[in-house]
Write a structure and sequence with these properties.
Largest sheet: 4 strands, mixed
Oligomer: single chain
Order of helices and strands: EEHEHEEHEEEE
Distance between the termini: 72 Å
Number of strands: 9
Strand order of the largest sheet: 4-9-8-6
Strand content: 25-35%
Radius of gyration: 22 Å
Amino acid sequence: MRLILREEVENLGKRGEIVNVARGYARNYLLPRRLAVEITDENLRLIEKERKVYETRLAKEREDAENLASSLSGLKLSFRRKVHGEGQELYGSVSVTDVADAVAEKGFKIEKRKIQLDEPFKTLGEFSVVVRLHPQVEVSIPVIVEKEKEEE
């Protein structure tokens, strides 16, 4: 079955593309979720109109993301954590939530899902965290994990 995508669908296509999918996939997934529409003249005009609005919105979001990225470029985060004995391994870890909270404390509001962290930091050291603000805009933030000073 041939359809026009209204949204980007992973492993299938981008917004506005004409794709050929199985009838069951179209009937049970794409059409009920309004991710795609059947090919008609009216739907082609609708998709073209939506595409123009989407591109305008995307350009505005990109501009905002670039402004935020330039503000974040000078940011440096530091965390103090307890370690096992004299080693480098942490008792806990530094996770996406910790990074998001630290960025929020500096006055920037970033959604946790935009922070690209494969796994939490579990050792002392210097790391880099990538924040994907927009599909074409990302910024790298240096993160330092230090040993917490022990009280004597």
